[in-house]
Design a protein that fits this description.
The chain contains 4 helices and 2 strands; from the N terminus they run E-E-H-H-H-H. It is mainly α. A hairpin with a 5-residue loop joins strand 1 and strand 2. The relative contact order is 0.13.
């Protein structure tokens, strides 16, 4: 898996590389561990050609959104680059939200045992 930097156009670097790139607010951010692209389905070694292939699609966006893309997407060569980066960032947030929900579920499932352990540890504290 490669890395996707939030705010960084994916086409500007080879598959699997990591770089600091400007983000939406202009501050460089470290790479986020996400798939850089959908997995290549062929057996060609992953090169810029085989893993950077795109599928043309059509979507309908509001005029306000197009204006925002044009305003904040100046660091990108095309609207498509900006939109793809934004979608990857959104997918990353969905992944983090699911991981956090799973972690909370595990903590809640073990809450009684963890609370009892914490109470036991607190019993050993010296009163100040």
């Amino acid at each position: 898996m490669g890395a996707v930097e939030l705010g960084a156009p994916r086409d500007r670097f080879a598959c699997g590389s990591r770089r600091l790139m400007p983000t939406f607010d202009g501050f460089p951010k470290l790479a986020l561990s996400l798939p850089q692209h959908p997995p290549c389905v062929d057996t060609i070694p992953q090169t810029e050609y085989s893993c950077g292939m795109k599928i043309k699609t059509s979507i309908t966006l509001s005029d306000e959104l197009i204006k925002a893309i044009d305003k904040y997407g100046k660091a990108y060569s095309t609207r498509s680059e900006f939109i793809e980066t934004a979608i990857w960032a959104f997918i990353g947030q969905i992944i983090r939200d699911r991981q956090n929900a799973r972690d909370i579920e595990i903590i809640n499932r073990n809450a009684d045992r963890l609370n009892a352990e914490a109470q036991d540890v607190l019993a050993y504290q010296v009163q100040l």
